[in-house]
Specification:
Number of strands: 21
Helix content: under 10%
Radius of gyration: 22 Å
Structural class: mainly beta
Largest sheet: 6 strands, antiparallel
Number of helices: 2
Order of helices and strands: EHEEEEEEEEEEEEEHEEEEEEE
Distance between the termini: 38 Å
Length: 324
Amino acid sequence: MKKLLLLLLVVPFATFAQNQYSYAFNGTTADLTTAGWQRTNQSTSASATLWTVASYTPVTVSATVQATPFQNQAYTNGQVCPIPVGQAGGNNSFALVNFTSTSSALQTGATISNWLISPSVTVQDGDVVSFYSRLGKFSATNTASYPDNLQLRMSTNGAFTTNPAGGPDQVGDFTELLVDINPNLTLTAYPTTWTMYSYVIEGLNSPTEVKFAFRYFVTDGGPQGNNSDIIGLDTFSVDRPLATNDFFKGNFSVYPNPATTVLNIDNRNNLDITSAQITDVNGRVVSQVNGTVSQINIADLTAGVYFLKVTSSQGVGTTRVVKN
């Protein structure tokens, strides 16, 4: 099987969270190293391919020139395919990795294990780690040509972390798996548009220096494999939610939490509620209901951590909620 290789912001402080670290993957690949990020390819018969920052140019599509990946529409012969943009906008402002992580000389599929490792970050229980990812390919069916997988892992050894070495099965000190996108390698599970993933840190006894690692991990991958194509990564952020608002605790409760479709608001003291608003960890309003409200629909939200703000004539209260 032959595969064709298609050529490659600081997050604002959230209204209800303090940013501990963020990286937007703009600039150049060299900037990754300058910023303290490390890269290592531990794939079977690893090639020289590592995570890079996108560096595409516009192309005119023809019989011999294909559209660049990370587009939101198809481009046909004669059309100019523009430079792709990252999650927050900006030409080439995202990182990527692809199926060439293994040698093209292999006659069968190999295991890809290609790592992008963050600088040390001090975190504590309750901190929210978030990032955006998407497939690189755009197809008429809006599905992958080949399945992909991305893991977010964590080491609690900070600056003393042992990085993966010795092949695709080794994870070094990154033994904690936080997020696993499309572990079953299906054609439909990995998003084709920029999608946020998040994880709430738990299990730490005190503030701890950690490192995070993105692992492009695909079995039966590479140029001769049945899996692996190209994925993008953007807007990595670690945020610390502010303490639960005392006004909210004194007057309201919300249930269930975590929730899947609906959050119910219990107005224990019958205050005059004027609105209920949900924001994401970056402070963006994702849902709002005006007037007296006892519940708010969250069925269309992406899984992750959000903040519910209830406004009444007697005061404003906020609390953290989780969407499953």
